[in-house]
Structures are given as C-alpha cells and as structure tokens.
Amino acid sequence: MKKLPQDLSLLLHQAGQLPDLAEKAELLTNLDHAVKQMLSGPVTEQLKVANLRQGILIIETTTAAWAARINFQKSALLARLQAETLPMLTSIEVKVNPGLAMYTPISRNNTNQLSETAAAHINALAEHTEGSLGQKLKRLAALASRKRQS
C-alpha cells in the first residue's frame, strides 16, 4: 500500500523544528503588519520586519534615508509596541538592505477582458448545462458584457 500524502497544516503542528519556524514566521508577519500600521506615510512600503532576536526587533529598509526616518520614530514605535504587542521588547535596530527594493511587489491592473465572441460561446454553453455550473457560466457571460458597457 502506498502512503497517502499528509496535509501541510498537520506537518506544521507536529514535533520538530518546522513548527517552531512556522510560529516564528507567523510572529514576524504579524509584527510586520503591526509596525506598518503604527508608522504612517510612504515609509511603510520601504520597510520589513526582518527578525526578533533576544528582545531586539530588527527592521530592514531599502536606503539610509528611510533608515534615518525610521530612527526618528524609533522611540515612539518601541513604546507603542511594548504597550500593545510585545512587552518583552527591549530595542529596535534599523538596518539598510538595498536588496529589499527588488522584492517590493508591483501592483498591476488586471487587463484581462472577455471578447463578445467568447461571451456568446460561454452563454451558449450555459444554455446546454444544467445546475449551478450553468448559472455560473451565465453570470460570467453577463459580467463580460457589463465590463464593456462601463
């Protein structure tokens, strides 16, 4: 008999190093989100919480100018993080990582459009399909015609 594949969520919660890594990654993600909410302006797009080690939060940013800007707000940020999120936090280090700029996500507009011919084919298929799939195909064809009108 072949062994069935295990669910990834089960592997993350078993004993070993993987659950510890998953927990730390989740903590860093939550801290990154919290720090970005506490800071305002375009600086939030230029930083990333990199690590939490021995009570020291390490924040990476793309340039020295952004690091200086974060350093000006560091004491207020530390006080807020201690009060709201991490009481065991002792300090914040800001490091410059120019490679971080390569990983900033670029938002792109979705330009995918359904042509009139494709909408007509989907609608014809929906006429011959029963049940929920037919209804969904009709809604898809109607959505294509609505996008063209607006």
UniProtKB/TrEMBL annotation:
Name of the molecule in the record: DUF721 domain-containing protein
Originating organism: Shewanella cyperi
InterPro entries recorded: DciA-like
